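With this grant's support, we have paired protein sequences with backbone structure tokens. One protein thus recorded is set out beneath this paragraph:

_____
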Amino acid sequence: MNSLRRRLILLLVASIVGVVALATAAVISVRGGGPPPELTVPWVAQQMELVVRLLPGPLPDVLRVQFSDHAAGGKVDRPETAMLNDILRRRGLDVLAIVSDKADEPGQLASVRLPDNRWAIMEVPHITPPRREWLVLAGWISLIVAGATAVSVYFTAVLIRPLEMLEAAVSKIGSDGMLAAVPEVGSAEVKATAHALNQLSSRLKTAMESRMRLVAAAGHDLRTPMTRMRLRAEFLDDERDKWLHDLDELDRIADSAIRLVREEVNQDAVEPVDLQKMVRDIEAEMVSLGHAVSIGHLDAVSVQAGALGLRRALRNLIVNAATHGKACSIDLAVANSRAVLTISDHGPGIPPELLNKAFEPFFRVDPGRLQSIPGAGLGLAIAKEIIERYGGTVTLENRKSGGLAQTVVFEAV
């Protein structure tokens, strides 16, 4: 019973059979005593009236009446007896009637004393259960089970169709890691599943393209300093400092690329992190390194993240603001159960048309890719990778008063 399909079928069949069985039991219990007296007693009174009025002449065969010197035995049903006598009196008959239970089987008998002191005895209509009632009930339940099984199999197939679509889509992943497009047709749930799969495919494609751009950018950035190194090979004695500078640049690019990949692979344990304390520690570290970093308003708040990874991400953002933005201030606020960290600098900002590219690997605002400030252009990409891994978001926005604002948002805990 490990199959979800089988479990759903069993659940639906059991539910349908259970409901029908309860309804059947309720109906049987309600009508178990036969038709109500309000229906049977007036019919008996009508038959007795015919007998009294037709005697002493012959009686038709349809009137199944027995005559006796005494009333039928058995326990007297007083309410129905009173009802029968009342109906007979209203019909103008001054006779005595008695309704009693049969002694040896279900049912009742009505006895009326005739003018000649004989008693006319007639059966009160009674619906008896059919013979072999258990066999009939078993057939009824079998039909219900068969019908419920057919319905359950159909609806189970409908319910698990999104899962089957997911399994089929995953099994068709190509060698390039891409998912085949899934048609968004069918019920609302199937459409939602297909849409989610197509979104996943689109994101995978974007991620793959991003990695390809990273490799291409790395190759481009490495080619230029390596070319310069070849040109200066003849001037080792006079160009030693330039050689060392180019080698340092190569080290920074390679090290940043390795750290970016490492951040995607290595994931430290997620735990509540005191964001206020972390910001104060990073600010103290930045000040000790000579960066112009200040703290504004800080609310006490914790977030769910990996402590080492989050510290590395925030440090990258703060270093980026302190170096490229000349100086920066840090504010931390809690709004709508969210922790909002804002890093504001006083630099030139980023042209609006380039804001959406700022998180791409090796991005530089300067089109000439000058390196007046050390760095390989991977700090923001690494920070974004870490923050989004822990469920947060990071956005960039040019401040109206000048400078750039980096905003990090996490769910507070």
